[in-house]
Amino acid sequence: MSITIRALHNGFAGVVSGIDICAPLARGEVTAIEKGMDDYAVLTFPDQPLTDDQQIAFTQNFGELEITLAGQMAKPSERRFQRLELGGISNLEADDVTKLRERNDKRRMYALANRLWHSDASFRAVGAGYTLLHARIVPGKGGDTQFADMRAAYDALSAAEKAEVENLVCEHSIVFSREQIGFNDYNPGHEAHLKPVPHKLVLTHPKTGRKSLYLSSHIGGIAGWPVPEARAFLRDLTEHATQPRFVYSHAWKVGDLVMWDNRTVMHRATRFDDLKEVRDLRRTSLKGVGLEVQRQPATAAA
Question: What's the CATH architecture for 4-287?
Answer without folding.
Answer: 4-Layer Sandwich (3.60)
